[in-house]
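Agenda item 2: magnesium ion complex prediction
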Amino acid sequence: MPEAPPTAEGYEEGLKFTETSQYKKQFAAAISSARKFLTDYKKQHPDDTNLAIVSDLDETLLDNRPQFRLHPIRSWDIFDKWIQESKAPVLKPTYDLLEWARTQGYAIFFITGRPEKDRKPTIINLVRDNVSYDALYLREKHGGPPAEEYKTAVRKKIEEMGFKIVLNIGDQYSDLAGGYSLDCEKLPNKMYFIK
Ligand SMILES: [Mg+2]
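Presented output:
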């Protein structure tokens, strides 16, 4: 979810990059590495319970390109209108990974930078896309502490509830920094950068 809009040129380039084989390769490599880590962890710790995965939503599971193709990122307001429509399709490789992981006993926690007021359209979007999950964390409001700080605090809370976060997956470094996960997987995104 864009907070600081990139330059129009950088943004266009980032959108074009998503159509390249390089993007698809990077995406597939991260998903494949995640799947291997989750498989190996289960093998090595057959008696562990309360295993969890943390995933970001925008550009990790939910694909906002239908909107970005129509409107270069200019403001939160424009993006927020799109959120209200609840019609972002899924990024299939992430969707498949999470569906599979859930059958392996991993709980799925979403931590998104979307504000709490967008909980309802976000849930409608996830239901429309047939996404199964265990909890959805949104920010109290837009703005506030940087994404890294907020997301790390939520992961800490999840672990304090007794879960072990085996995988954390996201398209921004701010999704992944800060600990409280055994493995981190970074998906490609050159369209925008969130601190
Ligand atoms: Mg994201």
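Discussion summary: Residues 56, 58-60, 170-172 surround magnesium ion (CB under 6 Å).
Owner for follow-up: CH.
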